[in-house]
Please model this.
Amino acid sequence: MAELKNDRFLRALLRQPVDTTPIWVMRQAGRYLPEYRATREKAGSFMDLCRNAELACEVTLQPIDRFGLDAAILFSDILTIPDAMGLGLYFTEGEGPRFERPVRSEADIRALPVPDPEQELRYVMEAVRTIRGALNGRVPLIGFSGSPWTLATYMVEGGSTKVFANTKALMFDRPELMHALLDKLAQSVTSYLNAQIAAGAQAVMIFDTWGGMLTSRDYRTFSLEYMRRIVAGLTRENDGRRVPVTLFTKGGAQWLEDIAASGCDAVGLDWTIDIGEARRRVGDRVALQGNMDPCVLYASPDRIRQEVATILEDFGAGNGHVFNLGHGIHPNIDPEHMAALVDAVHSLSLPYHR
Ligand code: CP3
Model:
């Protein structure tokens, strides 16, 4: 494999010194880029794009080529696992993801298979291998998965939800059954991420988009515990380098200390907490990733620069910061504003690393 030319992202995740603060952005390959829309058109549908290693590679590299970001993230989706379990994933315009066969009964849960990542999910591993080849050591490649709790919400609801009625009813009425589902998902996520690492992913991230919808007690029992088990089961070294693990719970700021104690290397932050406070609470244990409000990108490049300066100052001098948004970039952001963000992070952070 080609020598890694820009490793500041991996170094920051391990709290090692860097020349400038690294940045990548959640959903960096996506609809706000005209070149993404063109490739997606060519592919047909979003899932066809995910299943075509050449085209998935093409869209993964688009934001790297355009903005000079410090990490690439595999182009795929968190819902590939439930799809591989046989739920039949599809996307409808404006409604987001849907499943043809949601998980509704005890029998449904007991019958769910743990997918073999080199069989049903082989297309994801092909994409990882293709992207690593095309990157040729320019920047590291991030692999990812959803958290068991977040995947369970989509599987039980049959798609996106605001209330989580079915998922929470199952959790409150039949906790042992919810645990059986989460246990199966944790096994699936562990082998899926390990396969991504074996295929070439140099860091991995777990997206717990809906952990923040739980009470503190339920968060620990139904979400964090399963992420902890996954972290404990991951390959942490590959090709002679540590493979850092990042956990991101949206709405998880109140549980920072518990997340930092899970065994992960880094914690992703949404925008609701000041990163300086987060650093004081856990910065001697883990690196921090985040956390600009994605809506700042609707403001002018000058205002974006100001906000970047505030976050960098709040984090302060020293190691262990990966700049990111607090959640995914919105589909109607002007790409010029993204360029202003990347430039601001790279130039304004220099004094903090002298
Ligand atoms: O960050 C990246 O650039 C890598 C690719 C990535 C996608 N989805 C591509 C995608 C990643 C890391 C995800 C994760 C994901 N998918 C999450 C967790 C992160 C988060 O945002 O909280 C969730 C909850 C999903 C499920 C999902 N997939 C949703 C809710 C949607 C949006 C539906 C819509 O129409 O807005 C998707 C589709 C999706 N995943 C798109 C992209 C680029 C848009 C599909 C398109 O091209 O139309």
Notes: The mean pLDDT is 97.
